[in-house]
TrEMBL record:
Composition bias type Basic residues, residue spans: 133-143
Protein name: DUF4167 domain-containing protein
Composition-biased stretches (Basic and acidic residues): 58-94
Occurrences of domain DUF4167 (ranges): 2-64
Disordered, as annotated region: 1-24, 58-162
Source species: Marivita hallyeonensis
Biased composition (Low complexity): 99-110
Pfam families: DUF4167
Amino acid sequence: MGNVVNRVFDSSGPEGKVRGTPQQIIDKYNQLARDAQLSNDRVNAENFQQHAEHYMRLLSEAQREQDARREQQERENRERQAQRDADRAARQDNDPQSDDPSSAPQPDVVDITKDEDSGLVETPEAKADEKPKKPRAPRKPRKKPEPQAEVAQDTPAPDAAE
């Protein structure tokens, strides 16, 4: 049936066309029915109420279908989630390696630094670290800035008050 709730309808009623979503058309026909009742026009009031009732049925049927679809989707989602949870639990039962490794017995650490041969290949980077660095030449002291500030004080400053 499509999305009736948001679809725009053109309704040809007794007073001309009414355009809008079903809820807007219902509101308009109810307003027209109230106006007809206030002017003691029972025939037009009944006619407007029947038009409003027609769109009320359309709207309620569309909402019922939406609710049924939503319930179906929620049910499917719950079933999928339950299946995922069951699969996850089965994997955890079948996979004892996923336990916390810190609680497992730890191997003893063997210290092999006595013979200085760790079995690793020497790289150029490691050799560079072993060479002592040349001492740097001492830095020269900074030059003192030339006294330019005194020159600025000798020149008269322009008076801003003038």
